[in-house]
Amino acid sequence: MRPYITGIHHITAIAGDAQKNIDFYTGILGLRLVKKTINFDAPDVYHFYFGDELGRPGTVFTTFPFQGARRGTKGTGELTYTAFSIGKDSLEFWMERLKRYKVAISDVLTRFGEKLIRFEDHDGMGIELVANDKDDRLGWTYGQIPAEHSIKGFYGATLNLRAKELTEQLLTRHMDYKYIGQEGDRYRYGTEGKPGDIVDIVLDKTGNRGMQSAGTVHHIAFRTANTQSQLAIQEILMQNGYHVTEVKDRNYFKSIYFREPGGVLFEIATDEPGFAIDEEEAHLGELLKLPEWAEPSRKRIEAALVPITLNPEKYA
C-alpha cells in the first residue's frame, strides 16, 4: 500500500582524504560512525556511514574517500547542498563551533521562514544546518557537543537543475512527494513536509554541469519500508520509462538505482535490516566489516586501505 516512499534514506558523497573525512564528520559535526566498510563496487576504497546512534534511515550521510582525488565542482545535474536539522535555538552554537575550527560559514539565511547557515567541508562538500522546531528526533553525540545542540538527521537536499518539470513529475506522480511551495528559483517538495523528507529543486537554466569528484554528492537514496514496497516502486518506475537497475544487496539495506531526468543518481533503499546485523549497537563502526563475498580477500583489502583513527574527543 502507498506511500512507497517516505523520505530520504541516505546521501552518499565522494571524499578525498579518509582521515580528514572521519575527523570532520565525527569530530566537528559530531555524527556517529555507524559502519566502516568498503565500496562494494570498488573494494579498495572505504565506505563510511555517519548518522545517529543506530544509523536510522533519514540520518545517514555516507562517503567514498578516494585518496588523492581532486576536488569536483558544483553545477547543474547535481545534489549541491545536503541540509542537516538542528534545534531552533542551536544556530549560534554551531556558528561559534564552526568558526573555532576555521570552517568558513555564510551569513544567517532565511528560507521558508527558517534560519540556516551554509558551509563546506575540507573537500568542498556543500552542507547546511537548518534550525527548526519541527524535529523531535534525538541526535547523537560523542560528548564533545551538548545533546541539545546535536545534529538530529537530515533536513533535506537541494538538487541544482536546468529544468524542473520532468523531475517534478517523477517526484509527485511516482515517488509520493507533494509540491510545498516556491521561493524565487527554489521549489520545495516533501512526502509530509517535515525534516528528513524535504527535496528542493533550484532552477539554474544556464548553469554549467557539475564535475563529480571529491566534495560532490554521488547519489541520494530515498526510503522505502521493505523489499515488497521496493519491488512495487521499481515496477511503477519501469512502467513509466525509467531505466531502473536490478535489486542490489548492500548488506544493511537493498537498493535499486536510476537517473532522474535532470541527471542526479537516485537510489531507493529499504529501511530493513539496518546496521546492527553484524555489530552490536554499542560497538557500531568499530571494526572493518566486509560483505561475505569479500572476506576471502580481507588481508589484501586491509593492506590497500589507509589506516584511520576515530578520535572525536579532540574536537571538544
From TrEMBL:
Record-linked Pfam families: Glyoxalase
Metal-binding in keyword set: no
Q: InterPro entries annotated for this entry? A: Extradiol_RC_dioxygenase (IPR052537), Glyas_Bleomycin-R_OHBP_Dase (IPR029068), Glyas_Fos-R_dOase_dom (IPR004360), VOC_core (IPR037523)
Per UniProt, residues of the VOC domain are: 7-132, 153-271
SUPFAM superfamilies assigned: Glyoxalase/Bleomycin resistance protein/Dihydroxybiphenyl dioxygenase
The reply on keyword Oxidoreductase is: yes
Q: Which UniProt keywords apply?
A: Dioxygenase, Oxidoreductase
The superkingdom of the source organism is Bacteria
Tell me one GO molecular function of this protein: dioxygenase activity
| Record Gene3D superfamilies | 2,3-Dihydroxybiphenyl 1,2-Dioxygenase, domain 1 (3.10.180.10)
Q: Which CDD domains match?
A: PcpA_C_like
Q: PANTHER family, from UniProt? A: RING-CLEAVING DIOXYGENASE MHQE-RELATED
The protein in question is named Ring-cleaving dioxygenase
Q: What organism is the protein native to?
A: Algoriphagus taiwanensis
